[in-house]
């Protein structure tokens, strides 16, 4: 039983063989998938998938790449979507200073506005942070997400991870933890408490070893679980069941005080 907490299975790369992707993930013991939006249409697709498939849950939000153009009207539509059944998080939202596809001031503004909307509607947030550690930290301190949050595909240092864990955030690991050059990520996975870790694929991107470079899909989240089990010297089943339980807490399928 594994929860792939971050995937984009609405991506057109799955159009031809979606049913086979579903069969493979079920055969691999993946019992839940959170499909994550990055703009209004992908958020609508996430909600639709969650309605069509028992095992799919939805996150809805505007990725920093798409911050420019996120009008008040679009945010109002997202707020309505957020109230649909099986919407478990607001995301992915945050800052991306690596590709800088939207002006930084607008990225920040849309990030803040979406934290406020998530607070209003009672959802945790899913954070995308690339090369923007300092500004992300400032924003989440000034505008704390009331229902907690996840740093998706965590790639920062252990120093930063400690700060985030102290603020109550979860850290989610994806394919890069399996890569040969992943020294920092492995260090974070080694030190982070197992009850604060999630696993994900970020499908169709970031394919874990041994399939790196090919199209990713939720079935391969097993490789991430396997790697974390290796790093922590624990049975795979323990990592699978604890990360599943963690996801149930942050996505509010079971109630528990987050702090
Ligand atoms: Zn993503």
UniProtKB/TrEMBL annotation:
CDD domains to which the protein is assigned, alphabetical: TatD_DNAse (cd01310)
Going by the UniProt record, its keywords in alphabetical order are: Hydrolase, Metal-binding
Q: What is its EC number?
A: 3.1.21.-
Q: Which InterPro entries match?
A: Metal_Hydrolase, TatD-like, TatD/YcfH-like
User: Has the keyword Chloroplast been applied to this entry?
Assistant: no
Residues annotated as binding a divalent metal cation 2: 128, 152
Q: Which domain of life is it from?
A: Bacteria
Molecular function (GO) terms for this protein are: DNA nuclease activity; hydrolase activity, acting on ester bonds; metal ion binding
Does the keyword Metal-binding belong to this entry? yes
Report the GO terms under cellular component. Answer: cytosol
Query: What PANTHER family does UniProt report for this protein, alphabetically?
Result: D-AMINOACYL-TRNA DEACYLASE
Could you tell me what this protein is called? Answer: Uncharacterized deoxyribonuclease YabD
UniProt organism field: Candidatus Desulfosporosinus infrequens
């Amino acid at each position: 039983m594994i929860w792939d907490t971050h995937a984009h299975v609405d991506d057109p790369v799955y159009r031809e063989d979606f049913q086979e992707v579903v069969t493979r993930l079920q055969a691999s013991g993946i019992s839940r998938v959170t499909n994550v939006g990055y703009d209004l249409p992908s958020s609508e697709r996430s909600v639709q998938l969650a309605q069509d498939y028992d095992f799919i849950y939805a996150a809805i939000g505007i990725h920093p790449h798409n911050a420019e153009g996120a009008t008040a009207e679009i945010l109002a539509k997202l707020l309505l979507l957020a109230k649909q059944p099986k919407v478990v998080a607001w995301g992915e939202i945050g800052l991306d200073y690596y590709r800088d596809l939207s002006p930084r001031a607008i990225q920040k503004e849309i990030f803040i506005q979406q934290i406020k909307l998530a607070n209003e509607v009672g959802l945790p947030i899913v954070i995308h942070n690339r090369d923007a550690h300092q500004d992300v930290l400032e924003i989440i301190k000034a505008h704390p997400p009331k229902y907690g949050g996840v740093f998706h595909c965590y790639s920062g240092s252990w120093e930063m991870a400690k700060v985030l864990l102290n603020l109550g955030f979860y850290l989610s690991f994806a394919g890069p933890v399996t890569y040969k050059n992943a020294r920092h990520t492995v260090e974070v996975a080694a030190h982070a408490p197992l009850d604060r870790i999630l696993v994900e694929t970020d499908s169709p991107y970031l394919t874990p070893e041994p399939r790196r470079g090919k199209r990713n899909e939720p079935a391969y989240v097993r490789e991430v679980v396997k790697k974390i089990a290796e790093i922590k010297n624990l049975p795979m089943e323990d990592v699978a069941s604890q990360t599943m339980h963690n996801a149930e807490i942050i996505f509010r399928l079971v109630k528990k005080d987050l702090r």
